[in-house]
Automatic annotation (TrEMBL):
Transmembrane segments: none annotated. GO terms for cellular component: checkpoint clamp complex; cytosol; nucleolus; site of double-strand break. This is Checkpoint protein. Belongs to the HUS1 family. Component of the 9-1-1 cell-cycle checkpoint response complex that plays a major role in DNA repair. The 9-1-1 complex is recruited to DNA lesion upon damage by the RAD17-replication factor C (RFC) clamp loader complex. Acts then as a sliding clamp platform on DNA for several proteins involved in long-patch base excision repair (LP-BER). PANTHER family: CHECKPOINT PROTEIN, MITOTIC AND DNA DAMAGE CHECKPOINT PROTEIN HUS1. It comes from the Eukaryota. The lineage of its organism: Eukaryota, Metazoa, Chordata, Craniata, Vertebrata. InterPro entries: DNA_clamp_sf (IPR046938), HUS1 (IPR016580), HUS1/Mec3 (IPR007150). It comes from Phoxinus phoxinus (Eurasian minnow). It is found in: Cytoplasm, Cytosol; Nucleus. Component of the toroidal 9-1-1 (RAD9-RAD1-HUS1) complex, composed of RAD9A, RAD1 and HUS1. The 9-1-1 complex associates with LIG1, POLB, FEN1, RAD17, HDAC1, RPA1 and RPA2. The 9-1-1 complex associates with the RAD17-RFC complex. HUS1 interacts with POLB, HDAC1, FEN1, PCNA and RAD9B. HUS1 does not interact with RAD17. Interacts with DNAJC7. GO terms for biological process: double-strand break repair via homologous recombination; meiotic DNA integrity checkpoint signaling; mitotic DNA replication checkpoint signaling; mitotic intra-S DNA damage checkpoint signaling; nucleotide-excision repair; response to radiation; telomere maintenance.
């Protein structure tokens, strides 16, 4: 089992750092799945028990100048590692001006992702700063717990408003309540609402648009039978939504969400070479 990769382009390094920073804001621990073509950061929370889950997918060719992988076996050419993304984020922050960054799987006192950054110096002699990030190797029998989540049979899918605007609204609402109701319909309308014994506040968004899903442009089974005026809603822990909006640094070209009425909010951020999915369960 071997893994080594190298980043030379500073733009790719900065982009990869932003993605890792986003992941580190969303989870204290996650699984890094490595394949020959992709990297995945996976948080497999149990939605039924109130946990969030995350799936972040990166095409390795858009980030790495060199990428070599030998998985656990010929028929399973993958590696699953559990790590603290904050440790990887801190290591990358020291490498922002690096000439190159090498990442490889090593065996020290424990399995590690070793990050070696070649930094320039005034003397002309390069310096190499090395970080050993402890990881746990996930055995193959547990891999099925970290596969891509299926898109839920949603009631409404809608594009999100500008994320800075949405974050500003959620930040203010958090001062008034611990819970937020997010609702939307197939006419491109979305509302963020809080209701307490003392105050009721609603922010309205219109003309957001509803994304077509599937090759034929169809909506899901649930959505296709819905009245376009029907407001599907989900009541959320406002802190989980705020954490997601505060932590994201992916700068998506498209941001949307799917709502399963009274069950799940499924957020989707798409960049040309990164996709990020985040699932927040409803609270009663």
């Amino acid at each position: 089992m071997k893994f080594r990769a190298k980043i030379i382009d500073v733009g790719c390094l900065n982009h990869f750092t932003r993605v890792v920073n986003t992941v580190s804001k969303l989870s204290k621990a996650c699984v890094l799945r490595l394949t020959c073509d992709h990297l995945f950061f996976v948080l497999s929370g149990k939605v039924a028990s109130g946990g969030v889950s995350m799936w972040c997918e990166l095409a390795q060719v858009n980030f790495f100048d060199e990428f070599q992988l030998e998985g656990v076996s010929a028929d399973a050419n993958e590696i699953f590692l559990e790590l603290a993304p904050e440790n990887l984020s801190r290591a990358l922050k020291t490498a922002q001006n690096a000439r190159s960054v090498k990442i490889k799987l090593t065996k020290k006192n424990c399995p590690c992702l070793t990050l070696a950054a070649e930094l320039p110096s005034l003397s002309g002699v390069s310096r190499v700063v090395t970080h050993d990030i402890p990881v746990d190797v996930i055995p193959r029998r547990l891999w099925h717990d970290f596969r891509e989540p299926q898109m839920p049979d949603y009631d409404v899918s809608i594009y999100l408003p500008p994320l800075k605007t949405m974050k500003s609204v959620v930040d203010r609402m958090k001062n008034l309540s611990n819970y937020l109701v997010m609702e939307a319909n197939l006419n491109g309308e979305m509302n963020l609402k809080i209701e307490t014994d003392l105050v009721s506040v609603t922010t309205h968004f219109k003309e957001l648009g509803n994304p077509p899903w599937g090759e034929d442009g169809s909506q899901s089974t649930s959505a296709s039978h819905r009245d376009s005026e029907f407001m599907a809603q989900t009541r959320l822990d406002i802190r989980k939504l705020q954490q997601f909006l505060t932590g994201q640094q992916v700068n998506p070209s498209r941001a949307m969400c799917n709502i399963v009425h009274n069950r799940i909010l499924h957020l989707i951020f798409l960049h040309e070479d990164v996709s990020l999915q985040y699932f927040i369960p409803a609270v009663v």
